[in-house]
Each structure stands twice: as structure tokens, then as C-alpha cells.
Inverse folding.
């Protein structure tokens, strides 16, 4: 059901919500800063021929951001983690230089979007004041997050360089251990550092001094706990969920959440189906039918739970014709042997409710992880963002609380981290 209004949103609520509640939610959605803290980008979508000013069929782009009433977005400079088994020079100078080059390409692409491709629509924000000023002008704010410290290599000076290029948070690892920190994937693969490496500890001190937020969404629990011991500033999880509700290594258990709160930080609850809902296993008939379908279209096995990437990437390789054929056959299987439905906005808000109850409203936020595996029923691209606000209103959250969840808390931490940095530099 599509409703008229400032945002062309699709209602994903069951049972239907009354018109008064929708009106109230729309007014709140327009007034507060709606900030999504983690959205992936592809460098290929920043060219003159193809870019995010168009309604591309991915989950994030400017038309969808305008439709969904999203005020600000952290675009992510993501560099994948390689291993010595895959690249023998992974942790040598040449390996680090390749990663650094990939990171710089993404920084430059984002600057190209705000400076050349769409300066009339989107502007780079470096402070929370920037975000408020840009929203007041009716434009969108782009912020930059860095996912994986691997491209820092062994050059601590790059922490400041990434900040100067506009980066405002950085995670010390992604999936797979880096030279700086263990990753959550160590729960399956074993540990390299038992937390932070000696170099990782130096990088944390440098991040505090520079004013770059430390993101612990991908590093291991031990790494996070050691980070909290060392960091002089609050830390964040830019895209994670509650482990008590969904037991995957990317999520935060209660001990982690309470420690995060103590630091004054914030966890941005992520709309990633595999992290917010434990699916019931498929029936053997459904599994067999899906395996046959995958073989027919030469598609890989689905990745293990909690791992980055999904079938979407493999499907993108198919021609439009083959893709349609695949979708039709999948629809037949879904009808005949239905699987457990994917996560919805309700599951997402269940995680928010849990975290708010455990650590308080000031330490919780929201993010999509669009184009990086995120997306759930009701919030499957930026144009559907209003559904999240609507469900928050339906559950009784006030405008002030919704403003904090939708970016206010994260911007508070961003300011605090920069304030502490300038104090640290003064005392030096
Ligand atoms: Zn991620």
C-alpha cells in the first residue's frame, strides 16, 4: 500500500495503522535528522555515465534517499581483508599499498559525488553542525566511515590522513584478521592476536588524538574489550545487533553492550536479516528444490550465516533474461515449499527495544547496511525508510527519543570524540 505525503513510502505494517498515527509519524520523520550510519558504495557508480543521482536498482541512491526522507548517510570506504594464503604479500608493503589505493579510490569517489556530480543535492558533512546546516537547506548530508583499518598498513600517519579526507569512523578489522586486530570471524577460524595487535593499540591512541570514532562492529569481542580499556573516547558499533536475540559472532552480547554504554558510546542496530532473526531451517523438500535451482543457474552455495555477501552478488552476474527466468522458478518454489519469512521492520525494532531496555536510549541508533547485505521486509531500500519511524511511533517512542535513535546519539558521540581529541592535543 503506497500513501501520499512528503515521502512515497510503502506501508509494511500489520495490522493496519490508523491515519492519525501515520500523520504524527510523518511530521516527526520530517523534523528529526534521519541518519543512516552504514551504507556501502561501488566506485563504478560515481562516473559521468552511471552514478547515484540516478534511480539505480540498488538500495541506496539520491532519488531513493529523497523519497525516504533520509537526511544524512555515512558512505563507507570499505576494503576487503585478504589473507597470506590468497595473497602472499597480504601483510607486506605491496599488499598494504593495494589496499590503500582501493581506499583512496573510494574517498575520491565520494568527494566527486558531493563536489562534481551532485553538489546541488548532497554535501559532505564533517561535524554535527554541518549535518544540521545541510538539512536546513533541504540538501542531503554525506559523511564518511572507513570499514577496515587494513589500508593503514604500518603507517600510523594515515589515521590523520583518513580523517583529513573526511573519514569520521574507522573499524580496525573487517571479516578476517588485519594487522591491527582480530575479527569476529575468529570465533570460527581461530585467533591471530587474541584481541588487538601492538600496532592496533598505537592506532587506537592515534584515533583518539585525531578525533576519529572507533567502530567495533567487525572486530572480535576481546578486541572490543581491550579497545575500551585503552580508548579515552567513547566508541561505536556502526552496524551490529543484539546477540541475546540472534546468536551470531557479528552481534553484541549483553556484556559488550553494557561496556559500550559505560564508554558513553552507541550501537547502531543494523537491518541485516541474518543478524536480527534466526531463521527456522528449511524443509528438506525446499532445500532440495533450491539446490536444483542453484545448479541450473550455476550459482554458488549460500554463504554461511553472519558472513558478508549474499546471492544478490551472484545473481547480478546473470543476464536480465536469465535473471527473470530464475525469479519465476524461485517464486514457484516459494509457493510450493515456503521458507521462513525474512526479517521485517518489527524484528529490527525488537532489537532496538531490547538494547534500549538494557543500556538506555542514549546508546542506541539505527542503520541499514544497504548495498552491503542489509535490507529487510519493509525497509529494503532507502525509499522505505519511513516504515522504521512509523513502527517506532507505533511502539510509543516520543519525537525526542526518535531523534536520538535516528542520529542524535551518534552525532553526540562524534562531537564528543572530536572534543576529547582537541583536549588530548592541547595537553601534549
Ligand atoms: Zn560490515
Amino acid at each position: 500500500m503506497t500513501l501520499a505525503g512528503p515521502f512515497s513510502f510503502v506501508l509494511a505494517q500489520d495490522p493496519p495503522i490508523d491515519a492519525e498515527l501515520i500523520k504524527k509519524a510523518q511530521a516527526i520523520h520530517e523534523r528529526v535528522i534521519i541518519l543512516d550510519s552504514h551504507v556501502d558504495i561501488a566506485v563504478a557508480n560515481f562516473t559521468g555515465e552511471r552514478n547515484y543521482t540516478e534511480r539505480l536498482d540498488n538500495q541506496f541512491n539520491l532519488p531513493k534517499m529523497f523519497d525516504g526522507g533520509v537526511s544524512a548517510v555515512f558512505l563507507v570506504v570499505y576494503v576487503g581483508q585478504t589473507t597470506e594464503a590468497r595473497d602472499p604479500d597480504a601483510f607486506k608493503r605491496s599488499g598494504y599499498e593495494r589496499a590503500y589505493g582501493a581506499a583512496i579510490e573510494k574517498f575520491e569517489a565520494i568527494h566527486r559525488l558531493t563536489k562534481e556530480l551532485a553538489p546541488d543535492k548532497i554535501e559532505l558533512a564533517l561535524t554535527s553542525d554541518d549535518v544540521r546546516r545541510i538539512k536546513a537547506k533541504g540538501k542531503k548530508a554525506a559523511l564518511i566511515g572507513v570499514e577496515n583499518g587494513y589500508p593503514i598498513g604500518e603507517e600510523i600517519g594515515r589515521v590523520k590522513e583518513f580523517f583529513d579526507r573526511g573519514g569520521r569512523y574507522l573499524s580496525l578489522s573487517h571479516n578476517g584478521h588485519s594487522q591491527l586486530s582480530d575479527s569476529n570471524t575468529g570465533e570460527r577460524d581461530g585467533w591471530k592476536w587474541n584481541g588487538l595487535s601492538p600496532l592496533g593499540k598505537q592506532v587506537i591512541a592515534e584515533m583518539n588524538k585525531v578525533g576519529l570514532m572507533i567502530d567495533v562492529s567487525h572486530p572480535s569481542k576481546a578486541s572490543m574489550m581491550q579497545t575500551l580499556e585503552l580508548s579515552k573516547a567513547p566508541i561505536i558499533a556502526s552496524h551490529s545487533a543484539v546477540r541475546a536475540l540472534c546468536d551470531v559472532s557479528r552481534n553484541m552480547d549483553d556484556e559488550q553492550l553494557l561496556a559500550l554504554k559505560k564508554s558513553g558510546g552507541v550501537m547502531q542496530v543494523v537491518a541485516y536479516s541474518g543478524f536480527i532473526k534466526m531463521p527456522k531451517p528449511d524443509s528438506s523438500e525446499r532445500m532440495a528444490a533450491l539446490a536444483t535451482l542453484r545448479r541450473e543457474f550455476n550459482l554458488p552455495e549460500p554463504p554461511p550465516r553472519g558472513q558478508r555477501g549474499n546471492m544478490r552478488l551472484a545473481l547480478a552476474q546473470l543476464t536480465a533474461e536469465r535473471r527473470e527466468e530464475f525469479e519465476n522458478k524461485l517464486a514457484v518454489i516459494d509457493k510450493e515449499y515456503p521458507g521462513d519469512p525474512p526479517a521485517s521492520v518489527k524484528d529490527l525494532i525488537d532489537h532496538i527495544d531490547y538494547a534500549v531496555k538494557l543500556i538506555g536510549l542514549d546508546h542506541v541508533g539505527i542503520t541499514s547496511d544497504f548495498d552491503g547485505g542489509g535490507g529487510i521486509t519493509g525497509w529494503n531500500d532507502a525509499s522505505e525508510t519511513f516504515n522504521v519511524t512509523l513502527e517506532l511511533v507505533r511502539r510509543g517512542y516520543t519525537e525526542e527519543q526518535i531523534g536520538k535513535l535516528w542520529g542524535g546519539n551518534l552525532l553526540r558521540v562524534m562531537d564528543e570524540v572530536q572534543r576529547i581529541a582537541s583536549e588530548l592535543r592541547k595537553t601534549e
Observations:
- Residues 1-10 have pLDDT under 50 and may be disordered.
